[in-house]
Design brief:
The protein is mainly α. It is 83% helix and 0% strand. The radius of gyration is 24 Å and the shape is elongated.
């Protein structure tokens, strides 16, 4: 009888250790996914910022500032958000977090850029 009791405790202990290891593995994987996502955001932000600053002659830092009312900067920021969403495949929420904006602001900016793509000159600048 004593032997069965200790085997049962050993199995319970192994089950607890196994669950603890599985939980740690899931937590570690989540952290790695978050780090990979942050690196992807950083790379996308740098690439898009460089492209936008060259095409629109806007400082990269201006795209991330909370300025309102400066038409050149807001138009360039909308194009940058559009590129991040369409070309990089980021969700509106991810793009909003990258630019310090709400997802609805990103959706509005993407819609504005889509309407502006009807202009051949603007569309040419977007595709180059």
């Amino acid at each position: 009888m004593q032997q069965r009791f200790s085997e049962s405790n050993g199995a319970d202990t192994m089950l607890q250790v196994s669950r603890a290891l599985a939980l740690k593995t899931r937590q570690r994987d989540a952290v790695f996914r978050d780090v990979a996502g942050m690196q992807r955001h950083r790379q996308a932000r740098l690439a898009i910022g460089f492209a936008i600053s060259n095409v629109f002659w806007i400082e990269t830092g201006d795209l991330l500032r909370g300025t309102r009312g400066v038409k050149d900067v807001s138009s360039a920021r909308q194009v940058a958000m559009y590129l991040a969403h369409v070309c990089c495949g980021m969700s509106l929420t991810e793009v909003g977090a990258m630019f310090g904006r709400d997802r609805t602001t990103v959706a509005h900016g993407c819609l504005r850029v889509e309407f502006r793509r009807d202009d051949p000159n603007f569309d040419r600048a977007m595709t180059s």
